[in-house]
Design a protein that fits this description.
With about 280 residues, this protein is of the alpha/beta class. The chain has two domains: about 1-30 and about 75-115 and about 195-275, 3-Layer(aba) Sandwich (Rossmann fold); about 35-70 and about 115-185, SIR2/SIRT2 'Small Domain', CATH 3.30.1600. It is built from ten helices and nine strands. Strands 3-2-1-7-8-9 form a six-stranded parallel β-sheet, sandwiched between helices. A three-stranded antiparallel β-sheet has the order 5-4-6. Helix 1 (about 5-10) crosses helix 10, helix 4 packs parallel to helix 10 (about 260-275) and helix 8 (about 195-210) packs parallel to helix 9 (about 220-235). The longest helix has 20 residues, at about 50-70. The protein is elongated and about 55 Å long.
């Protein structure tokens, strides 16, 4: 059991935390790449911007999925990190998730690296609106669609608020009300770059901390792995909690193979005590 080693590496340190989809599995949001994850084929930015049929399919599925994500509640792992921030142990959370669960749990310094499900932007004029406001307009254009999808049952929602909906061909979606440009959820798609200012903010938070804790990320994509490399190159200890291997394991001072909720709750109890 690596728990004592995890505590030894992090005790007395000011810890920045990087979280991934495995952080939210206990809240009912499936992981893309975990050992028990269903097959998934997330839409790329090229597909979304180049093909109206892809956009139609995405908005139809998102019309269902975003509501489930908005209703999802934080789990014990999210609450543990918020507790550790209040205790002065955790300095910031950098999350690859778009589910806003860290904010819901009470974490204050949060970088939503890949955006959030709750806003929509125009790719042409930067117009922005809430996802809830867009939902009202889409519902008016597609009366009964949501109820029909829910009657099928067994809706599964992916980490990007995409839901499994079989019939999407009749769904009507909207363009920007200001310039008629293309509306897109304020989420970084596969193949899209994280905004530079957001990356720089995350680098700064890692630099200001004494250690980096990775929770629930396989670090498969570079957007997360770069912060592990940054911490390791600066001589800061890296601790990883994840189900299965990660691309950062070779750089970690300690790696615990397991779920986030229980381990972070236990860690919070010990670190909060040691911080007093």
């Amino acid at each position: 059991m690596e728990g004592p080693e995890l505590l030894r590496v992090l005790a007395g340190q000011r810890v920045a935390v990087l979280t991934g989809a495995g952080m939210s599995t206990d809240s009912g949001i499936p992981d893309y790449r975990g050992p028990d994850s269903p097959p998934s084929n997330p839409m790329t930015i090229q597909q979304f911007t180049s093909d109206p049929e892809f956009r139609q399919r995405y908005w139809a599925r998102n019309h269902v999925g975003w509501r489930y994500m908005a209703a999802t509640m934080p789990n014990a792992g999210h609450r543990a990190l918020a507790t550790l921030e209040r205790a002065g142990v955790v300095t910031a959370v950098i999350t690859q998730n778009v589910d806003l669960l860290h904010t819901k749990a009470g974490s204050r310094t949060v970088v939503d690296l890949h955006g959030t499900y709750a806003r929509v932007i125009c790719l042409a004029c930067d117009f922005s609106m809430s996802r809830a406001a867009l939902a009202d307009e889409l519902e008016a254009l597609n009366p009964g669609f949501l109820e029909s999808a829910e009657r099928v049952g067994g809706i599964a929602v992916a980490p990007d608020a995409d839901a499994v909906v079989r019939e999407t061909g009749s769904f009507r979606f909207l363009d920007c009300p200001r310039c008629s440009g293309m509306l897109k959820p304020d989420i970084v798609y596969f193949g899209e770059s994280v905004p530079k200012s957001r990356v720089e903010r995350a680098y700064s938070l890692v630099a200001d901390a004494d250690a980096l804790l990775v929770a629930g990320s396989s670090l498969t994509v570079f957007s997360g792995l770069r912060f592990v490399r940054h911490a390791a190159s600066a001589g800061k200890p890296v601790a990883i909690i994840n189900r299965g291997p990660t691309r950062g394991d070779a750089l970690a001072a300690v790696k615990v193979d397991g779920g986030c909720s229980e381990l972070l709750a236990l860690l919070a109890d010990e670190l909060a005590i040691s911080a007093r």
